[in-house]
Sequence to fold (314 residues):
Amino acid sequence: MSNVSVNTTHESTASAGFGEVADYFALLKPRVMSLVVFTALVGMVVAPGGIHPVIAFASLLCIAVGAGASGALNMWYEADIDAKMSRTAGRPIPAGRISRGEALAFAMPLAVGSVLILGTLVNWVAAALLAFTILFYVLVYTVWLKRRTPQNIVIGGAAGALPPVVGWAAATGTVSIDSLVLFAIIFIWTPPHFWALALFRTTDYTRAGIPMLPVVAGEATTKKHILAYSALLAPLAMVPWMMGFAGPLYALVAGILGAMFLYFAGRVFMSSAGSQTISASRRLFTFSILYLFLIFAALLVEQGFGLELTLAWM
Fold:
Protein backbone atom coordinates (compact mmCIF):
# COMPACT_ATOMS: atom_id res chain seq x y z
CA MET A 1 0.00 0.00 0.00
CA SER A 2 2.83 2.36 0.81
CA ASN A 3 4.45 1.63 -2.57
CA VAL A 4 1.28 2.66 -4.36
CA SER A 5 1.23 5.91 -2.41
CA VAL A 6 4.84 6.65 -3.22
CA ASN A 7 4.36 5.99 -6.93
CA THR A 8 1.22 8.09 -7.08
CA THR A 9 2.94 10.94 -5.30
CA HIS A 10 5.91 10.69 -7.64
CA GLU A 11 3.73 10.82 -10.76
CA SER A 12 1.68 13.74 -9.48
CA THR A 13 4.84 15.61 -8.51
CA ALA A 14 6.27 15.22 -12.01
CA SER A 15 3.01 16.30 -13.66
CA ALA A 16 2.72 19.26 -11.28
CA GLY A 17 6.04 20.62 -12.50
CA PHE A 18 8.36 19.95 -9.58
CA GLY A 19 11.26 18.59 -11.62
CA GLU A 20 14.59 19.62 -10.19
CA VAL A 21 17.03 21.95 -11.93
CA ALA A 22 19.24 18.95 -12.68
CA ASP A 23 16.36 17.29 -14.53
CA TYR A 24 15.85 20.28 -16.79
CA PHE A 25 19.59 20.48 -17.38
CA ALA A 26 19.57 16.79 -18.35
CA LEU A 27 16.92 17.59 -20.96
CA LEU A 28 19.51 19.73 -22.73
CA LYS A 29 21.75 16.69 -23.37
CA PRO A 30 24.80 18.44 -21.89
CA ARG A 31 27.37 16.00 -23.28
CA VAL A 32 26.09 16.47 -26.81
CA MET A 33 25.82 20.21 -26.21
CA SER A 34 29.46 20.41 -25.12
CA LEU A 35 30.62 18.78 -28.37
CA VAL A 36 28.42 21.14 -30.38
CA VAL A 37 29.86 24.18 -28.61
CA PHE A 38 33.41 22.93 -29.03
CA THR A 39 33.12 22.32 -32.78
CA ALA A 40 31.34 25.66 -33.22
CA LEU A 41 34.19 27.36 -31.35
CA VAL A 42 36.71 25.77 -33.70
CA GLY A 43 34.75 26.96 -36.74
CA MET A 44 34.66 30.44 -35.23
CA VAL A 45 38.38 30.55 -34.44
CA VAL A 46 39.55 29.08 -37.75
CA ALA A 47 37.45 31.59 -39.71
CA PRO A 48 39.46 34.51 -41.16
CA GLY A 49 39.34 38.00 -39.70
CA GLY A 50 38.86 37.20 -36.03
CA ILE A 51 35.86 37.93 -33.82
CA HIS A 52 35.38 40.15 -30.78
CA PRO A 53 35.41 38.11 -27.54
CA VAL A 54 32.00 39.44 -26.47
CA ILE A 55 30.45 38.51 -29.82
CA ALA A 56 32.14 35.12 -29.65
CA PHE A 57 30.75 34.48 -26.16
CA ALA A 58 27.25 35.56 -27.20
CA SER A 59 27.44 33.35 -30.28
CA LEU A 60 28.56 30.28 -28.36
CA LEU A 61 25.91 30.83 -25.70
CA CYS A 62 23.17 31.01 -28.33
CA ILE A 63 24.52 27.94 -30.10
CA ALA A 64 24.65 26.05 -26.79
CA VAL A 65 21.08 27.02 -25.91
CA GLY A 66 19.86 26.12 -29.41
CA ALA A 67 21.58 22.74 -29.22
CA GLY A 68 20.13 22.14 -25.76
CA ALA A 69 16.66 23.06 -26.96
CA SER A 70 17.04 20.55 -29.80
CA GLY A 71 17.96 17.86 -27.29
CA ALA A 72 14.97 18.69 -25.11
CA LEU A 73 12.60 18.59 -28.09
CA ASN A 74 14.12 15.26 -29.08
CA MET A 75 13.43 13.88 -25.58
CA TRP A 76 9.91 15.31 -25.65
CA TYR A 77 9.07 13.54 -28.90
CA GLU A 78 10.89 10.29 -28.13
CA ALA A 79 9.71 9.78 -24.55
CA ASP A 80 7.81 6.64 -25.57
CA ILE A 81 10.81 4.89 -27.11
CA ASP A 82 13.20 6.22 -24.46
CA ALA A 83 11.13 4.34 -21.87
CA LYS A 84 11.79 1.05 -23.72
CA MET A 85 15.57 1.38 -23.88
CA SER A 86 17.84 0.69 -20.92
CA ARG A 87 20.25 3.41 -22.08
CA THR A 88 17.57 6.10 -21.98
CA ALA A 89 14.95 4.86 -19.50
CA GLY A 90 16.44 7.01 -16.73
CA ARG A 91 15.96 10.27 -18.64
CA PRO A 92 13.72 12.83 -16.91
CA ILE A 93 10.53 12.22 -18.93
CA PRO A 94 10.38 8.38 -19.02
CA ALA A 95 11.53 8.33 -15.37
CA GLY A 96 8.52 10.50 -14.48
CA ARG A 97 10.45 13.47 -13.10
CA ILE A 98 9.26 15.87 -15.82
CA SER A 99 6.13 15.64 -17.97
CA ARG A 100 6.21 15.87 -21.76
CA GLY A 101 4.24 19.10 -21.64
CA GLU A 102 6.74 20.70 -19.29
CA ALA A 103 9.61 19.61 -21.52
CA LEU A 104 7.96 21.16 -24.55
CA ALA A 105 7.20 24.39 -22.68
CA PHE A 106 10.82 24.50 -21.53
CA ALA A 107 12.38 23.79 -24.94
CA MET A 108 10.36 26.00 -27.30
CA PRO A 109 11.30 29.40 -25.80
CA LEU A 110 14.94 28.32 -25.72
CA ALA A 111 14.88 27.30 -29.39
CA VAL A 112 13.16 30.48 -30.60
CA GLY A 113 15.07 32.76 -28.25
CA SER A 114 18.50 31.39 -29.20
CA VAL A 115 17.85 32.09 -32.88
CA LEU A 116 16.42 35.57 -32.35
CA ILE A 117 19.19 36.65 -29.99
CA LEU A 118 21.92 35.29 -32.27
CA GLY A 119 20.43 37.18 -35.21
CA THR A 120 20.02 40.40 -33.25
CA LEU A 121 23.42 40.42 -31.54
CA VAL A 122 25.61 38.71 -34.13
CA ASN A 123 24.23 38.24 -37.65
CA TRP A 124 21.24 36.68 -39.37
CA VAL A 125 23.26 34.26 -41.50
CA ALA A 126 24.44 32.48 -38.35
CA ALA A 127 20.92 32.72 -36.89
CA ALA A 128 19.37 31.19 -40.02
CA LEU A 129 21.87 28.33 -39.90
CA LEU A 130 21.12 27.74 -36.22
CA ALA A 131 17.39 27.71 -36.94
CA PHE A 132 17.94 25.26 -39.80
CA THR A 133 20.04 23.03 -37.52
CA ILE A 134 17.33 22.92 -34.85
CA LEU A 135 14.54 22.26 -37.36
CA PHE A 136 16.54 19.61 -39.19
CA TYR A 137 17.38 17.75 -35.99
CA VAL A 138 13.84 17.87 -34.63
CA LEU A 139 11.66 17.57 -37.72
CA VAL A 140 13.81 15.72 -40.25
CA TYR A 141 15.84 13.42 -37.99
CA THR A 142 13.70 12.94 -34.87
CA VAL A 143 10.18 13.06 -36.32
CA TRP A 144 10.67 11.81 -39.88
CA LEU A 145 13.78 9.65 -40.24
CA LYS A 146 14.60 7.92 -36.97
CA ARG A 147 11.63 5.56 -36.82
CA ARG A 148 11.39 5.01 -40.58
CA THR A 149 14.76 4.23 -42.15
CA PRO A 150 18.13 2.69 -41.30
CA GLN A 151 19.66 5.71 -43.02
CA ASN A 152 18.34 7.86 -40.17
CA ILE A 153 21.76 8.63 -38.75
CA VAL A 154 23.37 9.12 -42.19
CA ILE A 155 20.97 11.86 -43.28
CA GLY A 156 20.18 13.11 -39.80
CA GLY A 157 23.88 13.48 -39.06
CA ALA A 158 23.82 16.74 -41.01
CA ALA A 159 22.36 18.48 -37.95
CA GLY A 160 25.27 17.48 -35.76
CA ALA A 161 27.76 18.46 -38.46
CA LEU A 162 26.52 22.05 -38.85
CA PRO A 163 27.88 23.72 -35.64
CA PRO A 164 31.31 24.62 -37.11
CA VAL A 165 29.51 26.20 -40.06
CA VAL A 166 27.35 28.20 -37.64
CA GLY A 167 30.47 29.26 -35.77
CA TRP A 168 32.18 30.28 -39.02
CA ALA A 169 29.12 32.29 -40.04
CA ALA A 170 29.03 33.99 -36.63
CA ALA A 171 32.59 35.21 -37.22
CA THR A 172 32.32 36.13 -40.90
CA GLY A 173 28.63 36.43 -41.82
CA THR A 174 29.25 33.95 -44.64
CA VAL A 175 29.63 30.25 -45.39
CA SER A 176 32.81 29.11 -47.15
CA ILE A 177 34.19 25.91 -48.63
CA ASP A 178 36.53 25.67 -45.62
CA SER A 179 33.61 25.55 -43.19
CA LEU A 180 31.88 22.97 -45.38
CA VAL A 181 34.96 20.76 -45.15
CA LEU A 182 34.62 20.81 -41.36
CA PHE A 183 30.94 19.95 -41.84
CA ALA A 184 31.89 17.02 -44.10
CA ILE A 185 34.34 15.58 -41.56
CA ILE A 186 31.68 15.43 -38.83
CA PHE A 187 29.04 14.24 -41.32
CA ILE A 188 31.16 11.24 -42.39
CA TRP A 189 32.30 10.59 -38.80
CA THR A 190 28.72 10.32 -37.51
CA PRO A 191 27.57 7.00 -39.08
CA PRO A 192 30.47 4.80 -37.88
CA HIS A 193 30.27 6.47 -34.48
CA PHE A 194 26.57 5.68 -34.03
CA TRP A 195 26.63 2.31 -35.81
CA ALA A 196 29.32 1.22 -33.35
CA LEU A 197 26.92 2.19 -30.56
CA ALA A 198 24.07 0.37 -32.29
CA LEU A 199 26.11 -2.84 -32.51
CA PHE A 200 26.34 -3.17 -28.75
CA ARG A 201 22.86 -1.71 -28.16
CA THR A 202 21.00 -3.74 -30.79
CA THR A 203 18.64 -5.25 -28.22
CA ASP A 204 17.63 -1.78 -27.04
CA TYR A 205 16.92 -0.57 -30.56
CA THR A 206 15.01 -3.74 -31.42
CA ARG A 207 12.85 -3.40 -28.32
CA ALA A 208 12.09 0.23 -29.15
CA GLY A 209 11.34 -0.54 -32.80
CA ILE A 210 14.02 1.79 -34.17
CA PRO A 211 15.34 0.57 -37.56
CA MET A 212 19.03 1.08 -36.90
CA LEU A 213 21.28 -0.64 -39.43
CA PRO A 214 22.16 -3.68 -37.25
CA VAL A 215 18.46 -4.25 -36.57
CA VAL A 216 17.30 -4.27 -40.20
CA ALA A 217 20.42 -5.31 -42.15
CA GLY A 218 22.30 -7.39 -39.61
CA GLU A 219 25.68 -7.30 -37.96
CA ALA A 220 27.80 -8.23 -41.00
CA THR A 221 26.36 -5.47 -43.19
CA THR A 222 26.80 -2.92 -40.41
CA LYS A 223 30.46 -3.87 -40.03
CA LYS A 224 31.03 -3.35 -43.77
CA HIS A 225 29.39 0.08 -43.62
CA ILE A 226 31.48 1.08 -40.59
CA LEU A 227 34.70 0.10 -42.37
CA ALA A 228 33.69 1.90 -45.58
CA TYR A 229 32.85 5.16 -43.82
CA SER A 230 36.01 4.92 -41.72
CA ALA A 231 38.10 4.45 -44.88
CA LEU A 232 36.49 7.59 -46.30
CA LEU A 233 36.92 9.58 -43.09
CA ALA A 234 40.68 9.10 -42.76
CA PRO A 235 41.66 10.90 -46.01
CA LEU A 236 38.82 13.39 -45.71
CA ALA A 237 40.21 14.59 -42.40
CA MET A 238 43.46 15.51 -44.19
CA VAL A 239 41.69 17.96 -46.53
CA PRO A 240 42.00 21.00 -44.20
CA TRP A 241 45.79 20.57 -44.37
CA MET A 242 45.70 20.04 -48.15
CA MET A 243 43.61 23.20 -48.57
CA GLY A 244 46.03 25.22 -46.45
CA PHE A 245 43.81 26.26 -43.55
CA ALA A 246 45.44 23.71 -41.26
CA GLY A 247 49.14 23.22 -40.66
CA PRO A 248 51.58 20.42 -39.80
CA LEU A 249 50.31 19.88 -36.25
CA TYR A 250 46.83 19.17 -37.55
CA ALA A 251 48.19 16.96 -40.34
CA LEU A 252 50.19 14.89 -37.87
CA VAL A 253 47.27 14.49 -35.44
CA ALA A 254 44.70 13.77 -38.16
CA GLY A 255 46.99 11.29 -39.88
CA ILE A 256 47.77 9.28 -36.75
CA LEU A 257 44.20 9.34 -35.48
CA GLY A 258 42.81 8.45 -38.91
CA ALA A 259 45.02 5.36 -38.98
CA MET A 260 43.87 4.46 -35.47
CA PHE A 261 40.22 4.93 -36.44
CA LEU A 262 40.74 2.54 -39.36
CA TYR A 263 42.43 0.07 -37.01
CA PHE A 264 39.51 0.05 -34.59
CA ALA A 265 37.00 -0.16 -37.46
CA GLY A 266 39.00 -3.09 -38.85
CA ARG A 267 38.83 -4.81 -35.48
CA VAL A 268 35.05 -4.45 -35.56
CA PHE A 269 34.92 -5.77 -39.13
CA MET A 270 37.08 -8.82 -38.28
CA SER A 271 35.39 -9.58 -34.96
CA SER A 272 33.33 -12.71 -34.45
CA ALA A 273 29.64 -12.34 -33.67
CA GLY A 274 28.64 -11.97 -30.07
CA SER A 275 30.85 -10.75 -27.25
CA GLN A 276 33.85 -10.08 -29.50
CA THR A 277 31.82 -7.71 -31.69
CA ILE A 278 30.35 -6.00 -28.64
CA SER A 279 33.81 -5.44 -27.18
CA ALA A 280 35.29 -4.18 -30.47
CA SER A 281 32.37 -1.87 -31.18
CA ARG A 282 32.55 -0.40 -27.67
CA ARG A 283 36.22 0.43 -28.22
CA LEU A 284 35.48 2.05 -31.58
CA PHE A 285 32.62 4.07 -30.13
CA THR A 286 34.77 5.34 -27.26
CA PHE A 287 37.71 6.12 -29.53
CA SER A 288 35.51 7.91 -32.07
CA ILE A 289 34.59 10.55 -29.47
CA LEU A 290 38.26 11.09 -28.64
CA TYR A 291 39.09 11.20 -32.35
CA LEU A 292 36.71 14.04 -33.15
CA PHE A 293 37.74 16.03 -30.09
CA LEU A 294 41.46 15.73 -30.79
CA ILE A 295 41.44 16.64 -34.47
CA PHE A 296 39.33 19.73 -33.76
CA ALA A 297 41.52 20.52 -30.76
CA ALA A 298 44.55 20.41 -33.06
CA LEU A 299 42.88 22.99 -35.30
CA LEU A 300 42.04 25.13 -32.30
CA VAL A 301 45.57 25.06 -30.91
CA GLU A 302 47.25 25.58 -34.25
CA GLN A 303 45.03 28.26 -35.72
CA GLY A 304 43.44 29.77 -32.65
CA PHE A 305 46.55 30.25 -30.62
CA GLY A 306 48.99 30.68 -33.49
CA LEU A 307 51.03 27.62 -32.67
CA GLU A 308 52.65 25.49 -35.31
CA LEU A 309 54.57 22.31 -35.08
CA THR A 310 57.95 22.55 -36.79
CA LEU A 311 59.56 19.25 -37.61
CA ALA A 312 63.27 19.32 -38.39
CA TRP A 313 65.53 16.44 -39.16
CA MET A 314 69.20 17.09 -38.37
